[in-house]
Structure formats: C-alpha cells, structure tokens
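HUMAN: You are asked to prepare a plain-text protein record giving the amino acid sequence and the backbone structure tokens, both parts labelled.

ASSISTANT:
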Amino acid sequence: MTRYHDTRNARLEDSIRSVLAELLLFEVKDPRLDQVTVSGVKLTGDRSRATIYFSLIGDEERERQAADGFTAAGAFLRRELARRMRLRIIPELVFERDTSYAYGDHMDRVFDRLHREGVLPPAEDDGPVEEG
C-alpha cells in the first residue's frame, strides 16, 4: 500500500465517522442509539467494507440494544452515507463496540491497585519540571 492510499483511506475513514456521527445525532430517532458515539472507522483495503466502532456507557444489555439499533438503522445509514459522500463504492457497514475505553479504564484500575499495594512505585507527579 502506498502512502497516498493510506492517507486517502484515513481521510475517508474520518469523513465517514463524521457523517455517521452527525446522522446519529440529528437524523436517527431510534432510542437504542441515544448516547452512542461513533469512535472510529476502519476501511478494508478495497474500501468495500467499513467497520464502524461505537462506544457507549452501559453493560452488555445496553451494548446488545445498541447493536440491535444499528442493525435496524444500517440500511438508512448506508443510504445516507451514499447520498452525502461521493464515493464510487459505498462500503458495507459493520458495527462493533469499541472496547478500548473499557480496556483503558480496566488498566487504570489495575495500575492504581498495584500502586496501593506497593508493587509499583507511586505515580510521578505530572506537574511542571523545575530547571536547576
């Protein structure tokens, strides 16, 4: 893959994320998709498929509801994406929960516990560094 191809895909992914976020905010009326954020998009090399990563606050039941909402709204979202973006190929949309936030939160709790137990030294202060 060339640098141009990577840059173009990154721009397309960002544009798709923006359009879908706007659609969720202003057009989609499904309550299962309230408070759901499009956190990222990953296109395949041939741009025929886009994995849409979403984040939300809630448990597995809330995630299932959001997944059902995306299943119901998927055709509308793809149609609107085609209408708003000039793409030769409109990718198939696949929706997956973005677990990076939950993983980051989990890791923060693990490090906090390790600091409290003395396994790791106390976290360094992120304040200004004095020059001597």
